[in-house]
């Protein structure tokens, strides 16, 4: 009971009774019994305390184990290069990127903190705390905002506190007073929209080296997260670092430190629990038995001991009397013989002791060997821990695999197999390093003139370089590409779209002028005019609408008012149509280029066809019967009439075109018309009205015709020559007309 009391006391459990009374031989039996009952009452009273303390130990251990498991999972995630962003932010970002990909657009949705990096690390705590949850707001290109907004709204409450930034409205013009350093100056980004958003959030926040200067500004902060804003001084809560390409490494180092401290605390708590379990076990054994009944029973031992002492004295007197008896003397001799036998037995015992000593020497040797093996085990353990250093996340998996193997194999077999496997993997690793990784690393350092470590040791440096290229350099080039696309788009609008619109309007005007002339020309009972309209082809018609859209207008970049009005009234639908138009052109341009390289025809249109305004128009000649007033497109009747009927409108069109030119130049104009193989498909009854039209319009006609057309043509000609060809020789002479019909 005294030992139990000491254990309880060392465990911090108070259980009081008077040990001195229990040990006092002068105390009465009643005093002993009274103190024994007090001890029983005290031990019964702490039963719940022991249970509560055991529950506290178990709860604390479970909490620590849960925390350690979370830290190990976080380390594994960080080691693989993944930052533990809020799941809501990842959900919004990934859903928007999926929607962009479905629209064949670049997946450019990113968290704000993914775009940022610090140019002064001493202010990172202040920046992280000031931005707080706004670090996880989503940044998209302005042209993708409406699509991203649609996805964002569809997610409902699952977005929680995550925001979508309207990058269309962000401006880079923020006034800053000279002589002050602003918090936004400590943050950089290769994404112009992310930088503008950060400048907007932290606009006017002045960096103060001392807390004494905070109240001198409307908004100000210090490095240790003191903020003065809205006439209020606050200490901003410290936040985890998410900004910068080295944020993952910082977070990983911090998490490893937390894991080590948590493991130490867990080991200490488990050791305390082990000691407490021993106390609890002793307590349960003592309480559950009949220890108190035995103590109470033995409290009468002092009085019984006095009675026993008197009995011993009487017995000794009786023995002395019996030694004088002869019979007893014989018995004593027999005892002497027994003692001799005992001596012999003792000798044998001595021999066995000597043998025992020899065995003990052997045992010592074995113990020494055991110590040597223990030392070897410590060395192996140290080597194991060294191998495990930096790969703690795999320790649980290693121990599980070892436990599984131990179910079917001996430890020596496992060790032998492991050494063989380790050698094979070491060889494979060396081959990978020497044949693949190191040559690639050398090629990279030689190509880009840098001095990075070789092998596995340089992997972290290359990963950091990769992140820098991905998040900084690539974004810088991406921003330049966006600007180039904008310039290309502006040039496309100015040099292609607007020019084609101007060409179409001019063509309509020219045909209108020609039609004024053609409508006054009579060919028999018919008159003609040109018809021009939007292409009936669905795709070309859609491109025609884009070209003729009211938003397709020439903007003078030097005129700030026109630029401002154009930007304010810009139609997002029209801009989207232009992008689709450009994309369609580039698809056919690429296909056309592949045709030229491979020789395989795919039917792709050339660039020249797309930039020719005539591609987007349908032309026709309208034939009007002046008697009936019916108008019919020539394209609809061309397959029904004769060749002459179909040919006549073209001569009328040629005549109208030349008349338009000649009327613009009345002085010194010979009004000449040249026709080769004239009227070759026309019959005489259609040639004569045509010749009458030329004569009426006072045009000087020079034509070449075959002999069979001469009958209808000659009466209208002032001079006629005959050309005869024989073999390789030609002969020409004046064709003289005689007789009534004028033909020789």
Short description:
The chain has 24 helices and 15 strands.
Structure report:
- With 744 residues, this protein is of the alpha+beta class.
- Helix content is 61%, strand content 9%.
- Among the domains are: 84-241, no CATH class; 665-744, P-loop containing nucleotide triphosphate hydrolases (Rossmann fold).
- It contains 24 helices and 15 strands.
- Strands 5-6-7-8 form a four-stranded mixed β-sheet, with no helix packed on it. A three-stranded antiparallel β-sheet has the order 9-10-11. A two-stranded antiparallel ribbon has the order 1-3.
- A hairpin with a 2-residue loop joins strand 14 and strand 15.
- The chain is elongated and about 205 Å long.
- It starts with a helix and ends in a 10-residue tail after the last strand.
- Mean pLDDT is 80; it is low at 740-744.
Task: Looking at this protein, list some descriptive labels.
24 helices; three-stranded antiparallel β-sheet; four-stranded mixed β-sheet; 744 residues; alpha+beta; Rossmann fold; 9% strand
Q: Give the number of helices.
A: 24
Judging from the principal axes of the Cα atoms, what is the shape?
elongated
Strand content: 5-15%
Structural class: alpha+beta
Q: What separation lies between the terminal Cα atoms? A: 160 Å
Helix proportion: 55-70%
Query: How would you sum up the major sheet?
Result: 4 strands, mixed
| Overall pLDDT confidence | 80
C-alpha-based Rg, rounded? 54 Å
Arrangement of strands in the largest sheet: 5-6-7-8
